[in-house]
Amino acid sequence: MAYKSGFVALVGRPNVGKSTLLNALLGRKVAIATPKPQTTRNRIVGILHRPGAQVVLVDTPGVHRAEHKLGERMNKTARLSAKDADLIWHIIDLSRAPNQEDRWVANMSRESRVPVWLVMNKADLVESVKERWEPYRALMDYQNQFVVSAARETGLSVLVDETLSFMPEGDPYYPPDMVTDQSEDFYIAEVVREQVLELTREEIPYSVAVTVEERTARKPDLTYIRATIFVEREGQKGILIGEGGRMLKEIGRRARGELEAYYGHQVFLDLWVKTRERWRDQDAWLRRLGYEEPER
């Protein structure tokens, strides 16, 4: 039997569980996931390996009404990822009714001229799935539909099996031991940003970016990491540091624990906070912080 391989774009409005679904399918964490909308800002690739097949899952930012250049780039990333895929999973949250963002995603998916499947997530949060899915099924003519719970990991095997069958014949795109294409520094920055999202409120989570300035193996069992957290206003900087540095210490403590599990040894995490006004609307700073303008 010929080898099968292809790309699947995970698209949807913010906070429908795209990243949680990606992690559940891969059996490991490659994308951060928080209750905050717009947690995912970049295209995140996860590679699913099966005998005779490889599925490249592309997690995308949630489609939303953009209020700055960063948001525009996030939406463009989702649109281009959908257009370049062999298959689109339009992921929705069954516990919430469709809104304008869901309609935008449906229109974007339709315009991509790529087959679209409706993946109805968070089934564990509703009593009657059928009552909830009807408004979503009316958004467009989906070629297939699935009910899943990424959090409970139910319904995933059927989704994967059907996707494997749908993939075109072709050689693998990635080596068999590769699970994601993201760099080590990108993952570190995302882990730190995840803790900021978890611990802060209001506008601060959306005004934060993280860069890794240094990563050095000081000893065989010790990695030193220096990272900078950027905010847009001095007031945000004060909140992020906290009284007596307590907030920054807690962010560091949580992130360090996850990074030590990742490395399997001790990590010295040195966090700094700097202010860069309106970085979300400045092309040069967006590039520096890892939010490149998507091609095309």
UniProtKB/TrEMBL annotation:
Residues 12-19 are annotated as: G1. PANTHER family: GTPASE ERA (PTHR42698), GTPASE ERA, MITOCHONDRIAL (PTHR42698:SF1). Keywords: Cell membrane, Cytoplasm, GTP-binding, Membrane, Nucleotide-binding, Ribosome biogenesis, RNA-binding, rRNA-binding. It comes from Sulfobacillus harzensis. An essential GTPase that binds both GDP and GTP, with rapid nucleotide exchange. Plays a role in 16S rRNA processing and 30S ribosomal subunit biogenesis and possibly also in cell cycle regulation and energy metabolism. GO terms for molecular function: GTP binding; GTPase activity; ribosomal small subunit binding; small ribosomal subunit rRNA binding. It is a peripheral membrane protein. Pfam families: KH_2 (PF07650), MMR_HSR1 (PF01926). Residues 148-150 are annotated as: G5. InterPro entries: G_ERA_dom, GTP-bd, GTPase_Era-like, KH_dom-like_a/b, KH_dom_type_2, KH_sf_prok-type, P-loop_NTPase, Small_GTP-bd. Belongs to the TRAFAC class TrmE-Era-EngA-EngB-Septin-like GTPase superfamily. Era GTPase family. It is found in: Cytoplasm; Cell membrane. Residues 200-277 form the KH type-2 domain. This is GTPase Era. The gene is era. GO terms for biological process: ribosomal small subunit assembly. Residues 59-62 are annotated as: G3. Residues 38-42 are annotated as: G2. Residues 121-124 are annotated as: G4. HAMAP family: GTPase_Era. Residues 4-169 form the Era-type G domain. Monomer. One of its GO terms (cellular component) is plasma membrane. GTP binds at residues 12-19, 59-63, 121-124.
